[in-house]
Request: fold
Amino acid sequence: MKPTQRLRRLRANETMRSMVRENQLSTADLIYPMFVHPGSEPRVPIPSMPGVYQHSLRAFGEALDAVVASGVSAVLIFGSAESKDELGSEAHSENGAVQQAIRLAKDRYPALYVIGDVCLCAYTSHGHCGVVEGGAINNDASVEQLVRVALSQARAGVDMVAPSDMMDGRVRAIRRALNEAGFVDVALMSYAAKFASALYGPFREAVDSAPQFGDRRSYQLDPANASEALREIRADAEEGADVLLIKPAAPYGDIIFQAKQLTALPVAAYHVSGEYAMIKAAHERGFLDEKQVVLENLLCSKRAGADLLITYHALAVASWLE
Reply:
């Protein structure tokens, strides 16, 4: 019996496929993560992330030139510390690497959208994302430090702060502090569902932030739990987040989808360092085609519901989309 429906008619050629395609990638979707360090070495390669560097402040301007030339219009800035202490104090220094990078970026390219990572892990001597007391993370003391970080970035001219620590109540505290200080227009993108993933290793190498004891499972989400992630997402939306971030992206498409159904807020998907490193390694060995895999991964995140895509492949993707 011949088929009564021939769905292949809509897949017959690229013209038709492009006409009925439900999701599209655009450079407007992309956010490029960048690393700055306080040292003098212009570009420090990150061995596990080929093509990604830590930039000195002097070299950061040239790196921004490449971003703007690519058409990517937003960057997410991560820093590292010259000196570390128990509280991660350098994270909120007015002359910290991130704060200086924010000022440089806004002076050089006022229209570039600049997002600052708000966390303590790269600045604490113990490598945790919060304040440690008695061998455990003190949630409320950590929030106080994170508020200081967000305010210091706001004073530097950041467009958006992005708390990535997963402490309870930090979204409300940061939003309130920004408002009271007059930074009502500084947006807040919360890492609403950041899972305790094995895919963060290369990032921890990049900013020297591996925990010196234990792990981060008491504050990052259990990969086995979806309902818990939705509770976190709902809480951050209620506390004043402007954008909700899901991390990692590819393994958690179900969470991206459910986050989009749960709230009307924009959702960002972070294709993390381990995802980047795996694709790069497989491509270098001839196992996969980097371009095809990256575009498929990003498109699938959009299909799941992501509005924004944070990826170390952003500049390459922009060139592929031309």
Remarks:
- The radius of gyration is 20 Å.
- The first helix runs from residue 14 to 20.
- The chain has one domain: 25-321.
